[in-house]
Design brief:
elongated, single chain, eight-stranded mixed β-sheet, alpha/beta
Length: 499
Amino acid sequence: MTVSLSNSESAAGTAEADVLVIGVAQTPDGPSVAPGADGVDEALGGTLADTLVALGATGELEELTKIPGGGKLPAALVLAVGLGSPPDGDASFDAENLRRAAGTALRSVAAKTGTVRDDGVKSVAVALPARTAGEAEAVTTGALLGAYTFRKYRATPAVSVAVSVLTDDAAAVRRGEVIANAVNLVRDLVNTSPLDLPPAALAAEAERVAGEVGVAVEVLDEAALAAGGYGGLIGVGMGSTRPPRLVRLSYTHPEATRTVAFVGKGITFDSGGLSLKPPKSMETMKCDMSGAAAVLAATVAAAELSLPVNIVTYMTIAENMPGGAAQRPSDVITIYGGKTVEVLNTDAEGRLVLADGLVRSAEDHPDVVVDVATLTGAATVALGVRTAGVMGSSDAVAASVAEPAWAMPFPEELRKGLDSTVADLANVSADRGGGMLTAGIFLREFVPAGAAWAHLDIAGPAYNEKAPFGYTPKGGTGSAVRALIAIAAATADGRLTGA
């Protein structure tokens, strides 16, 4: 469904909406109605707590309990969603729990309104805890992420629903909306058929969305890439009839004193090249441009939020195909800046295009560099499909990743596996173990000197092949966008500096 968003100072019990969302906390004494549901119990004749117990509600996170309004409320349906354990005293509810709860509730509404059968839901009032700016922002973000549906290729259009967050903090709602829109932009791009999103089309979309918020855009086509010596992008793109692109975005703020560089892997489809993937492994490879989409969306969001930081972003975009001109295992390519790489596996292509972008970012003299990529299957083996791997030179940058992630080491003994007999280094190791770590060690060779650096491997969380959960749909998830926005904000206020 599509959403029109607003905030309202109405009490929950008088909010004009078809569906009213309230929160339920999980306590040792049973379910407890969370702050925000003002007037609902009174309207229901003081029966709300007993009704929740009778319906089996516990307050467990993401649990949904449906209560008819019965004509006693403007809303025909009350959705009581579990928030998990409440905070101590007057502390705020956990932001992630609020996002997940709001997302679960709105996803339930979207599951009905987004189908051919329209059940008549046209408006939703969200009365979850929103007493602080952080709570209001989290509720808004979660609601909009949960309401997301992708209907580009469906015969029936999306249904429009008005969503009102019950809070007086319009600024926090606006921040939540900007962040959610950025995440949903990535979801749209990842879910788009790779037939419709070759490198040139992704570059054009970057020009469009960045231009709308005043972010400067420069696009290098295949001729400019060849002339400039971007050997990673040229090499990876050689097998495709749809040539590579490098997109450079530049956002500046008049009060900024620090610069962050984002570099994103943008493989619009990854067949593996001549090191061909098995057919089943290709089915989700339209998501291999998630990193580039994430850095684009985060840059646009930073501009909309007017963060006082300079951001230079590189989207390294190519299609990895096994055409007659494709690069071969044992080819030697020259990365931008002059370092040579022996390509032993053409399916380890993401690190090659990222290397071009990382070296190029040095010319912008960044204080912080973050690269994002669906880089290795090894990341999912180590961390599963909901947690990103984080590697880098800065513990502070790693700690600023505001999404599920786990810091990984740089075992120095793995570097020897990247030695090549003919080039400066090889793109894969002779040793099979530690594939995620070896990929990070490869990238480290190209990071600008003096910059704090983090590498985010989002191979697991970028695409959800299983059932939806919380605010996460099936398909593209928009992983890393919120992390990048948080890193940009931390760079702006001086929490992150050079290595």
